[in-house]
Design goal:
By secondary structure, the protein is an all-alpha fold. The chain has 16 helices and no strands. The longest helix has 26 residues, at about 10-35.
């Protein structure tokens, strides 16, 4: 199947946490320079983000989990005084770190326990939608689209009731929902959702030329959607627009995925083996997700068979079976 959409919940989360870290560091510097004690005290409630982010971005997941568990305990024991938004940030971060570790049962458990805790505290808040979204993402990663959509629907109801359907957060949310429909091969409806999300981004930034990390993810998925609908010229145009933007260099995992997709376009639909091979080869030199590297290796093998070795179709199919079996092992591990 042509084209690969961005399914890495944790990769996107890493970038968001890095952005938070950079923001907080700048804020702390401003506080130190101004000597504003009042602001310093208000920010100290969020200081855990700095420690956790350092652990998280350096792969020290156990340390990050321990610190997040401790912070969760502090917030629950002082729930009347703690910020609800900070509490939910701790819970979603903890769930995401568990996902990064492949501990999907623990990720689900922490979300369920927190929803039950908030129910006992009689909390009815707009912010709870973030926990519903996290549940939806988790089930999507576990390849359970039906359950993912059930939780996404809960979050969507809150967005609609609150009237918050023109925000960047809602654009990010409906682009996640679109991936479920792509997974179910309903590309037409997925395209409608992605197009709606992109119009929100354009309206927010005031230009079609502004590329945030989230919008690059969205455009990659939109291009993949066009490819699945066999609109290859449009898919190629979008991939080339993304690669031309400087913002792509800030997220190497996403960059690798876009390079893989564009390389496949050049090989299979432009019949430009050299340019396609060049893009796909670069993927193996990047910090790419394992499934992206697997696909790149398969594509390069196939190109090699076509252009140099004269391999038989049977030999190519055997290699294809090996890749499929490897991917099956990955997904079976995810569902444990």
């Amino acid at each position: 199947i042509f084209g690969h959409y961005f399914v890495g919940v944790t990769s996107a989360t890493k970038q968001n946490i890095k952005d938070k870290l950079q923001y907080l560091q700048l804020k702390f510097q401003a506080i130190e320079q101004s000597g504003d004690v009042t602001i310093s005290q208000s920010v100290s409630d969020n200081s855990w983000i700095l420690d956790v982010t350092n652990d998280y971005t350096h792969g020290n997941y156990n340390e990050a989990i321990t610190k997040l568990k401790n912070q969760r305990k502090i917030y629950e024991e002082n729930f009347g005084k703690a910020s609800l938004g900070n509490y939910i940030s701790v819970i979603t971060s903890l769930s995401n770190v568990f996902c990064e570790e492949g501990k999907y049962i623990e990720a689900d458990k922490v979300l369920d326990e927190s929803l039950l805790f908030l129910q006992k505290e009689n909390v009815q808040s707009y912010q709870i939608k973030s926990l519903y979204e996290a549940k939806g993402r988790l089930f999507y990663v576990l390849n359970n689209v039906d359950m993912a959509l059930q939780w996404y629907n809960k979050a969507n109801d809150i967005y609609i009731k609150s009237g918050d359907i023109k925000s960047i957060q809602y654009a990010s949310f409906i682009s996640q929902v679109a991936m479920c429909f792509m997974h179910a091969e309903d590309y037409s409806f997925a395209e409608q959702l992605i197009d709606k999300a992109d119009s929100i981004y354009i309206n927010f930034y005031g230009s079609d030329e502004s590329y945030s990390n989230e919008r690059i993810v969205l455009l990659n998925n939109m291009a993949t959607c066009y490819g699945r609908m066999k609109n290859y010229p449009k898919a190629k145009e979008l991939y080339e627009r993304i690669i031309a933007d400087k913002s792509l260099s800030q997220n190497e995992r996403l960059k690798a995925l876009v390079y893989l997709n564009l390389g496949e376009i050049y090989v299979w639909y432009d019949n430009n083996m050299n340019l396609g091979e060049d893009y796909i080869s670069k993927v193996l030199q990047m910090d790419a997700a394992s499934y992206v590297k697997d696909m790149a290796e398969y594509d390069l093998y196939f190109i090699h068979c076509l252009t140099r070795n004269g391999k038989t179709i049977s030999e190519i199919e055997q290699y294809n079976d090996a890749i499929i079996n490897h991917m099956s092992d990955i997904f079976s591990h995810c569902s444990e």
